[in-house]
Amino acid sequence: MIKNDLFLRALKGNSVERPPVWMMRQAGRYLPEYIELRKKYDFFTRVQTPELAAEITVQPIDIIGTDAAILFSDILVVPQAMGLEVQMVESKGPILPKTIATSADLAQLVVDEAADQLSYVYEAIKVTKQKLDGRVPLIGFAGAPFTILCYMVEGKGSKAFDKAKQFCFAQPKLAHELLAKITEVTIQYLRRQIKAGVDCVQVFDSWSGLLSPNDFKEFSQPYLVAIANALKEESPVILFPKGSWYALEDLSTLDIGAIGIDWTISPQLARQLTQNKITLQGNFDPNHLLKPISEIKKEVKQMIEAFGKDRYIVNLGHGILPNVPVTHAKAFVDAVKLYQ
Ligand code: CP3
């Protein structure tokens, strides 16, 4: 039994006393308790050791008091499980030394057994559920196929992912084959997370907003829809195609828990495009968390009023930034809890 089930009720579209709140990337780099652990263990040791991953997952529940926990892991464990090396370089981000460029590269990727490689994730979910002891629901996640393709082809983080986009447009057949493989692995992986105990899954399409509306329809949407449809009987699904506000109307017809949005769209327009049919999650600009606490509180109240308290999950429009003071993150959460 989950004691605080506000988040699950909002995903079902039920009326709530106040909207639930959590923050993308809440388990991590702005928390002093996390930074302590980072001194002792490297990134993938933290991710691959179930007790450590569970401890980091629960930290924001204890310290900030969010209404949901998100498993501490990374979207890049999927390329790893498919056979690509991923290095996490301090203050530089992820590096994939071997990228995907040809059909021979594609043929070498592991598909059928990839989800089996991630047993440490399923174990971390079990340990986390015990630690949470029903206090709040646990969110599992994966990267969306287009975003994973971006890293597999580009080999590192990027502002524009030109190489990845050019791969899609120059070799569309190969791109679709790659997207189909990632989709297959992602469905199996999320299914195993659900079996291990997560209460909801979120699919992060962090880079879909780099695509035009037409290109999104070709290279992202069909794969998001395939994942959502494969899992809808098993768990609520949240799709977060960052920056792809133009897809809201189409995505709102899916049988899913919620759609995540960023700050480049107003609550009013997002409601209008989705005709109030679906729960929306977002969309506070994480940089606003650097404003004085009194202003954060005022803006949170205004945001809830603009979305309406029902069919709404308060969140940021992207991950919390490393330089956000813990007191400001807590003020954001507290402002939601005080809403009436
Ligand atoms: O949300 C949470 O608190 C759970 C943990 C989580 C991490 N990564 C831990 C992490 C989640 C949900 C992610 C998702 C993720 N990872 C995304 C999608 C969300 C988004 O931000 O767009 C992406 C694109 C990645 C890939 C990735 N991982 C990058 C680009 C980087 C380096 C830059 C950065 O954000 O710090 C990472 C490293 C990473 N993943 C860190 C954490 C806490 C920081 C490294 C560290 O603490 O040592």
Give the proportion of residues in helices: 40-55%
CA distance, first residue to last residue: 26 Å
What's the CATH class, please?
Alpha Beta
Strand content: 5-15%
Helix- and strand-based class? alpha/beta
Number of helices: 16
Mean pLDDT score: 97
Tell me which oligomeric state these chains represent: single chain
Compressed to H and E, one letter per element, the order equals HHHHEHEEHHEHHHEHHEHEHEHEH
Question: What ligand species are in this complex?
Answer: coproporphyrinogen III
Annotated CATH topology: TIM Barrel
Shape: globular
Taking all Cα atoms into account, the compactness measure Rg is 19 Å
The total number of structural domains is: 1
The spatial strand order of the largest sheet comes to 1-4-5-6-7-8-9
> Which stretches are poorly predicted, pLDDT < 50 over at least 5 residues?
none
Query: What's the CATH architecture?
Result: Alpha-Beta Barrel
**Count of strand segments:** 9
Largest sheet descriptor: 7 strands, parallel
